[in-house]
Amino acid sequence: SKKVDVLGIEFEHTTKTEIIYTLEKRIRDNKKTFIVTANPEIVMYAQRDSQYKNIVQSADYILPDGIGIIMGAKLLKNPLPERIPGFDLMKDLLTIANKEQLRVFFLGARENVLNKAIDNVKHDYPGIQIAGCHHGFFNEEDPEVATMVQESNPDIVFVALGFPRQERWIRNNAHLFQQGIFMGVGGSFDVLSG
Ligand code: UDP
């Protein structure tokens, strides 16, 4: 598929409709998928931290979160079709999960925020199977949380640890999984909890 390079980060040349279609197919085909929705902050941080840049580049799809990336790509004369905000993509994946009764794990945010977000998900997307959840303030040296996510056998894992931690967590633990959609969602649980 076509990529658009913005400061060394290779964005997917796609619309939201197209990528959702692709992701639905990958779920059906049990293909493990790492998604990064990158905003200008992430792209700038990757310039300073080559290890993080490698992690981002290892994603299956890097999508432009925010108008800053769209403008940057346009200035570089290699335009992207449209912005794909992480929160919107998460909501679309929740809609698919609801329809297909998928297993979703919610990892991250403060415990009360997480619980509120899960209550709202249960109400708004009753078809979703909550595979599990865990707050985002844990020690990553301890494999307990990763094991918990693994054993929950999720179809989708939303990781709300903020960047760069969420992408590192996905990268470090992806090998534990045979399949599943893994996506860093930043402050999205805070929004979902409202
Ligand atoms: N967070 C977390 N663990 C941490 C640091 C942050 O779970 O060690 C959560 C925080 O509670 C919030 C989200 O990660 O829900 C980060 O949101 P923010 O908007 O700061 O991140 P960004 O969108 O900039 O990635």
TrEMBL record:
- UniProt keyword terms in alphabetical order: Cell wall biogenesis/degradation, Glycosyltransferase, Teichoic acid biosynthesis, Transferase
Supply the EC number(s). Answer: 2.4.1.187
Pathway where this protein functions: Cell wall biogenesis; teichoic acid biosynthesis
Q: Which residues form a coiled coil?
A: none
Q: Which GO terms describe its molecular function?
A: N-acetylglucosaminyldiphosphoundecaprenol N-acetyl-beta-D-mannosaminyltransferase activity
Which class of enzymes does this protein belong to? transferase
Superkingdom assignment = Bacteria
Q: Give the catalysed reaction(s), semicolon-separated.
A: UDP-N-acetyl-alpha-D-mannosamine + N-acetyl-alpha-D-glucosaminyl-di-trans,octa-cis-undecaprenyl diphosphate = N-acetyl-beta-D-mannosaminyl-(1->4)-N-acetyl-alpha-D-glucosaminyl di-trans,octa-cis-undecaprenyl diphosphate + UDP + H(+)
- One Gene Ontology term from the biological process aspect of the record: teichoic acid biosynthetic process
What the record says about family reads: Belongs to the glycosyltransferase 26 family. TagA/TarA subfamily.
Q: What does this protein do?
A: Catalyzes the conversion of GlcNAc-PP-undecaprenol into ManNAc-GlcNAc-PP-undecaprenol, the first committed lipid intermediate in the de novo synthesis of teichoic acid.
How is this protein named in the record?
Answer: N-acetylglucosaminyldiphosphoundecaprenol N-acetyl-beta-D-mannosaminyltransferase
Originating species: Siminovitchia acidinfaciens
Report which part of the complete sequence is shown. 2 to 195 of 246
